[in-house]
Every structure is written in C-alpha cells, then in structure tokens.
Heavy metal translocating P-type ATPase (Amycolatopsis plumensis), 291 residues
Amino acid sequence: ATPTALMVGVGRGAQLGILVKGPDALEASRRVDTVVLDKTGTVTSGRMTVTEVRPLASRTEHEVLRVAAAVEAASEHPIAAAVVARAALDAPPEVTDFVALPGLGASGVVDGVPVLVGRARLLVENGVDVPPAVAAEVAAAEALGSTVVLAACAAEVAGLLVVRDEVKPSAAEAVRALHEMGLRTVLLTGDNDVTARAVAAEVGIGDVRAGVLPTEKASVIERLRAGGHRVAMVGDGINDAPALATADLGLGIATGTDIALRAADLILVRDDLRVVPDALRLAHRTLGTIR
Ligand code: ADP
Ligand code: MG
C-alpha cells in the first residue's frame, strides 16, 4: 500500500474508534479469514457478579464467602473482584502464601487453613475430593451459562459460588456481520466447555475452544495458522497477550489490560464489538480502492 492509502486508513480508523498501531496492521486485516474471540471481557462484559452462594459440609454462607474473599482479595481476576464485592467484608481476614493459578483459580492460607478457590479441576489436581453431588450442581449451573467457583478449606469442599457475566449487547450483531463477510468465528476461553457453549449459542458462534489455559491460547492460534488460516484474535486480558501477538492481526479491547494492548496491532477504543467487522472492512475500503 502507498503511504497515502495507509494514512487515509489510519484516519478513518480513528473516526470509527480504531487505533492502528503499525503500518502492517491494515494489510494484515485485509487477508484475515478467521476471527477468534476471547470470551470473558471480550464477548461478555467481564463485569462478573456472584448470583448465588451455596455452603456445603455444615458451613454457613458467611464462612464460605469470608475465606473465599480473603484469597480473592489478592487476585486480579474479574471473578475475584465479584467474590470480594459480594462478601463486602469490613475487615477481610489476612491471607498468606497467596498464589495465583492462571486459568484455574488461586490459593492461600487463611486463619492457618489452606484455602483453594477456583474451578473443580484446581481442587482435583490438589487432591481435594469433589463429590458427585457437587459435580452435578456445578454442571447444572454451567449449562445455564454461569461459571462455578468452588472453595475448599483444608482439602475439603466448603461451598460453591455461582458467577455470571452478561454477553455484550453488540456481540450477536458483530458475529452476524463477520459471518456475512464470509469470515469464520471461533470462541476461545479458559472457562469450561459447557459455560462457553451456552455463551457461544447466545451470540451465534459455532466453533468453541474451551478449557484452554492461558499458556495454550497462543498454540490454538498457531494451529489455526498452520492449517492455512489467516487469523485475527480479539482479546482483552493478560492471558490473551501471547495469542494477540501470535495472530496475523491482534485486536485489543481498550478497556482491557495494558499487556494485551501492547501485544495488539489494532486497539478498539469503543466497547462495542461491532467495531471488529468495521476494523476488518476498513482495510478493504481504504487499501482496496486507493492502492
Ligand atoms: P477467560 O479465558 O474466560 O478469560 P481465564 O483463563 O482467566 O478465563 O480463567 C479460566 C477459569 O479459571 C475461570 O473461568 C475460572 O473458572 C477459573 N479461575 C481463574 N482465576 C480464578 C480466580 N481468581 N478465582 C476463581 N476462579 C478462577
Ligand atoms: Mg478475557
């Protein structure tokens, strides 16, 4: 493309709420055939709320929230913020030995007791038995599109927290526009398969890659590229940064974390997913006509 065409593209992008970071971004966006979208914070608002707390093993709701919030107070995950908000403790108990376990949850010691907060897999991997009745409760909430966080104290399941996040109002229309442009869409998430499928169905995405650990998100992009696809990745989180950098074109949501924005080629300033098809059309319009 000529420098003039690129400048026109950058200017039109700015009007649409798209910041173009480098000269290659427009050229790359013209060739994209597959758009991979992160779930939490990209297709959904990322503003999670705890809708239910179910204590187990003769504990009270307050006890479960108190230990879970103590650990989550040290975490940066959107789920953690929801748990802390729901607990609304004046003086949360102190946590020591806090460890963030990306894609799984977090752990720490509260009142001298080891606590795990996260998905069932985290508990199982740490030798905590998840009884079939609990697993069934988890599955039922997930089928409705919720994410379930389990809390374990001293290697025993203490309770479950049902967390929800709303799909962005613009998501279904954005996906429809991408399909009309002949593009293939994929939902990529660390969240479990059942929740991910419920969200994907709500917005019209058929291809779901769920339960993908943060370190594996880039490998999913790499495999799609190895299969001959030109891939755009849309994401917002720290866990999306390697995938954004690996994709032919990385689109970062401006409300996301700095690390994701640094890895992106285009930054979407408005929190409206319809900017994604706009961004891909931008290159066709400017480079396609002016070059
Ligand atoms: P996404 O790809 O949807 O942004 P993540 O990779 O950040 O999701 O996390 C995947 C899953 O791991 C979450 O859906 C949740 O079940 C669990 N998880 C991760 N961090 C936490 C945490 N701090 N507290 C509770 N659960 C967590
Ligand atoms: Mg995200």
